[in-house]
Amino acid sequence: MELVSVTEQATLVDPAGRPGAQTIEHRSDPLTGVVASVNLALGEKARAFVGTADPALLDDLAEKSRASCPFCSAAEKGTRYDPAFAPEGQLRFGGALAMPNLFSKCRFDSVVILDVANHVLRPSAIGAAALADGLRAAAELVRRARAADPAMVHHLVGMNFLPPAGSSVPHAHFQVHVRGVPYSGVTRLTEASAAWRARTGRDFWGELLAAERGGPRFVGQAGPVAWLAAFAPVHQREFWGVVPGTGSLAEVDEAGLQGLAEGISRVISLYESMGVHAFNVALLSSPVAGRGGEYSLHARVCSRPPLKALYVNYETWFGPMYGGDEVHTEAPEAYAARLRERW
Fold first, then answer.
1. What is the pTM of this model?
2. Is there a contact between 250 and 143 (Cβ–Cβ < 8 Å)?
3. Strand runs (DSSP E) across 173-297, as ranges?
4. Nearest 5 degrees, angle CA 124-CA 126-CA 132?
5. pLDDT for the residue 315
6. Residue 265: which pLDDT band, with cuts at 50, 70 and 90?
7. Which pLDDT score, from 0 to 100, does residue 17 have?
8. pLDDT digits (tens, 9 = 90+) for 196-218
9. Which domain holds residue 36?
């Protein structure tokens, strides 16, 4: 597997009249061709204009949002499923509670509250056990939707944590979307994986892990799940947790769920240690049963701008939004090393 990068040099004269130069590395994802540009000098700009989270603001938000949080009282006041889908009304897995989203984006749109009793806004306080309960609920919702209607095979599971990550309710929760229409991003990945298999006779995801294992971007194992920093990240500080041999969340076993939960917990705790609390998680899962020979279910986790009174969405600009490629302030090898030290 070839991991391609091209290096460019930018020269300028700074405001003080001094000549300067910056090195930019453009990396291409070996499966999709998406380009990620890395310029370490941008880290200075990020520190100056973005900074780190405001802990006092975070604590204030935790207290003010607790009293009116709809998820803290979801067991008594939350929505209920149609009895044909879930006779019990809501689904319980450990401390996690699943219920229909009040404002749906697809036929089966659910909210999975990771721990109803735990209204915390610090990632390290969420915990692997709560994440595992949430993932168990998500997998069951995907299976139930398929059982209710065989056409409901396309699904997406994710989390937005804190306002800079797009969350409207700060209490930690997954969203589970199941519909009859494909998700374009998942389709691009599954089709590219199938094309790789047809072209080479080999599994892309297995080759990727073989190429990365032991290298500067490989972090470690959590059960069967391999965790690494993406070579050409689409978003900031992006980590992947790959479940080899399993294509779909509907088919993942308990060890896979635990490995995903453990890894996500460690990644988001690293973000917190770096002064960043907001993050996004997505589980990219094949709609086709038994596709583990050419596609691997995997989680992608990225950090978002720090929570401040006036936070800056430095990654929401025309490049990634319409051009498709992101620019990064830190090399994946650097933040992979930070996580590997804590693994």
1. 0.95
2. yes
3. 173-179, 218-222, 225-229, 239-242, 279-284
4. 120
5. 75
6. very high
7. 95
8. 999 999 999 999 999 999 999 99
9. 4-44
- Is residue 300 domain-shared with residue 338, that is, in the same domain? yes
| Model confidence at 49: pLDDT above 90 | no
Higher model confidence: residue 47 or residue 143?
143
C-beta separation of 212 from 221 below 8 A: no
Whether the CA torsion 219, 221, 227, 228 is positive or negative: it is positive
Whether residue 175 is found in the same domain as residue 281: yes
Cα(131)–Cα(264) distance, integer angstroms? 8
39 shares its domain with 63:
no
Segments in 83-127 forming alpha helices (H): none
User: Which pair of structure tokens corresponds to residue 301?
Assistant: 């986790």
- What is the separation of C-alpha 120 from the centre of its chain, rounded to a whole number of angstroms? 19
Length of the chain: 343
How confident is the model over 113-123, as a mean pLDDT?
95
Tokens of 309: 């009174």
Count of the separate structural domains present in the chain = 2
Residue that has been written with the tokens 């470690």 in this structure: 220
Burial of 182 (0-12, 13-18, 19+ CB in 10 A): middle
Q: Which residue has the tokens 């229909």?
A: 100
